Amino acid sequence: MIDVTPALAISGLTFAYPDGRQALFGVDLSIADGERVALLGPNGAGKTTLVLHLNGILHGGGGRVEVAGLPVTPRDRQAITEIRRRVGIVFQDPDDQLFMPTVAEDVAFGPSNLGVHGEELASRVTEALTAVGMLEHRDQIPHHLSFGQRRRVAVATVLAMRPSILVLDEPSSNLDPASRRELAGILADLPVTVLMVTHDLPYALELCPRSVILDGGRIVADAATGDLLADRELMAAHRLELPFGFDPSFRR
């Protein structure tokens, strides 16, 4: 029998912050293994809150989150360690993830904390840096790199964990056009399930065949990215705007 367990399954997820602000209202979302999905929505929609539930950073509300059938249960230390290996989050600011003396040490940090050492650890570092085109910079100080290079190293720190799901928070933000294009090429070749949080709608169209719009803590649309971006009324209703002159049908 073919295994149809989704890579990510969210059902009835609700969450309120300690000040009483309700951020999520019964979110349901399923992502198949190998799918690439963009998470779109205006500021304050609940996107970051949702993402932080995927590996148990936030918890305590209602509903359920499962990664490949495994429930995200922060109170079970062994289980949450495995979830955090499987779900890799690349944050918007690469400096949040780079703190070691060299690039290679940053990339090795996560796997080494899981008990990976010796040749296996060296292999993971080489593999991850090669995947993002940064192997030749392995001995450099991370903060001497350009912003685009640091973002690629941040991706490598997550890839070294060999996750099954890669979550990207605004991956194209603050990149120059060349760095933006180079990162797109790298992300397109990664053999993992991708959930990409972005305001860069052309980037979503380029990299993610499917998009979900989250607004007011609820999923309000879930369809092919090109179809969503071409729906002007839907876009306007949720404060999403394409760049001037961009035709979303061009790549459909």
From TrEMBL:
It is a peripheral membrane protein. The keyword Ribonucleoprotein does not apply. Keywords: ATP-binding, Cell membrane, Membrane, Nucleotide-binding, Translocase, Transport. InterPro entries: AAA+_ATPase (IPR003593), ABC_transporter-like_ATP-bd (IPR003439), ABC_transporter-like_CS (IPR017871), ABC_transpr_CbiO/EcfA_su (IPR015856), Co_trans_ATP-bd (IPR005876), ECF_ABC_transporter_ATP-bd (IPR050095), P-loop_NTPase (IPR027417). Residues 8-241 form the ABC transporter domain. One of its GO terms (molecular function) is ATP binding. It is found in: Cell membrane. SMART domains: AAA. SUPFAM superfamilies: P-loop containing nucleoside triphosphate hydrolases. Gene3D superfamilies: P-loop containing nucleotide triphosphate hydrolases. Probably part of an ABC transporter complex. Responsible for energy coupling to the transport system. Part of an ABC transporter complex. Responsible for energy coupling to the transport system. PANTHER family: ENERGY-COUPLING FACTOR TRANSPORTER ATP-BINDING PROTEIN ECFA1, HEAVY METAL TRANSPORTER. This is ABC transporter ATP-binding protein. It comes from Actinoplanes couchii. The lineage of its organism: Bacteria, Bacillati, Actinomycetota, Actinomycetes, Micromonosporales.
